[in-house]
Design goal:
The protein is mainly α. Helix content is about 80%, strand content about 5%.
Length: about 270
C-alpha cells in the first residue's frame, strides 16, 4: 500500500510542479487546509470545537496567502491583515491564540513560500525541483548513513531514530544533489563558477539542517498528542504532514533567504 500510494501521488505532485500556474496553486489549495486540519488535531483535542475553528482559520490563511504570493507587497499586506483577524477571531471565539498563530506560521507560511518560489517562471520550476531534490536527498542520506554508522542520538526523546551521523550524511547528500541539479539544468543565466557551486552546496547543507529540524518538530507534536501519524489520508504513509514536515521548514527558510537577498541586492544597487 505504501508503494502504491507513492506511485499514484508522485506523478501528480511532480506534474503540478512542472506545469506550475493553476495546477500548482490547486495542489497547494487542496493540501493546505488538509495540513491545517492535521496540525490542529496534533495541537489540540481532536473533535473539539476549538480545534475545528482553528483549522478553519488556518485554512482561510492558506487560501489568501497563496492568492497573494505572486505579489510580495500584496502578500505582506495580507499577512498583516490575516494576523490581526486571526487574533481577533481567537479572542472572540475564546480560542488559544498560540495554537492558531503557530499553525498560521507553520502551514500558511510554508504554503505561501511554495507558491511564491514556484511562480510562473522556468527558474521557479527549477527552484522547486532543487528544493525537493535537496530535502529528499537529506532524508535518504540521513537514513542510510545513520543506519550504517549509528552513534549518538540527536533527540532521543523526540525522534529516537535520528543520529548525528545521519544528520551529517543528510547534509552531505543534500550538498551533492544541490550542485547536481544546477549542473543538470544548465541554466544559461547562471555562470556555474567554483564559488557559485560551493555556495549552492553550503546553502543546501543549511536547508538540510532545517529539514531535519522540521522532522523533529513534527515528531514532538505527535509525541505530545500521543499518536503515531498526523493523519490517515495517505494509505501506508499516514498524513500529509508526515511526508512534508521537513519540506515545510525548508521551503519557508529558502523563501525568506531568496526574498532577503532580492531586496538586499536591490537596495545595494
Amino acid at each position: 500500500m505504501r508503494v502504491a500510494s507513492a506511485l499514484v501521488l508522485a506523478p501528480i505532485v511532480l506534474g503540478a510542479v512542472w506545469m506550475g500556474g493553476i495546477a500548482f496553486l490547486a495542489l497547494l489549495m487542496i493540501a493546505g487546509p488538509l495540513m491545517a486540519l492535521e496540525w490542529t488535531r496534533l495541537a489540540g483535542p481532536e473533535g473539539s470545537a476549538a480545534t475545528e475553528q482553528i483549522a478553519l482559520t488556518i485554512g482561510l490563511v492558506v487560501y489568501l496567502l497563496t492568492m497573494g504570493a505572486g505579489d510580495s507587497g500584496l502578500a505582506f499586506a495580507l499577512l498583516l491583515a490575516i494576523l490581526g483577524l486571526t487574533l481577533a477571531w481567537c479572542l472572540w471565539a475564546d480560542l488559544p491564540p498560540s495554537r492558531a498563530l503557530i499553525g498560521f506560521a507553520y502551514v500558511g507560511g510554508a504554503v505561501a513560500a511554495f507558491a511564491w518560489l514556484r511562480g510562473d517562471s522556468d527558474m521557479g520550476r527549477l527552484t522547486i525541483i532543487w528544493l525537493l531534490g535537496v530535502v529528499w536527498a537529506t532524508d535518504i542520506g540521513a537514513y542510510f548513513v545513520g543506519r550504517t554508522f549509528g552513534g549518538p542520538k540527536m533527540a532521543p526523546r523526540l525522534s529516537p531514530n535520528k543520529t548525528w551521523s545521519g544528520l551529517i550524511g543528510g547534509m552531505v547528500s543534500a550538498a551533492i544533489v544541490s550542485v547536481a541539479v544546477f549542473v543538470w539544468a544548465d541554466v544559461q543565466s547562471i555562470s556555474l563558477t567554483t564559488g557559485i557551486l560551493i555556495s549552492l552546496a553550503i546553502f543546501a547543507a543549511l536547508v538540510a539542517l532545517l529539514s531535519q529540524a522540521g522532522d523533529i518538530y513534527e515528531s514532538s507534536m505527535k509525541r505530545r498528542a500521543g499518536v503515531k501519524d498526523s493523519g490517515t489520508i495517505i494509505p501506508g504513509h499516514g498524513g500529509i504532514l508526515d511526508r512534508v514536515d521537513g519540506l515545510m521548514f525548508a521551503a519557508t527558510f529558502v523563501a525568506l533567504v531568496v526574498i532577503s537577498v532580492h531586496y538586499l541586492v536591490g537596495w545595494m544597487s
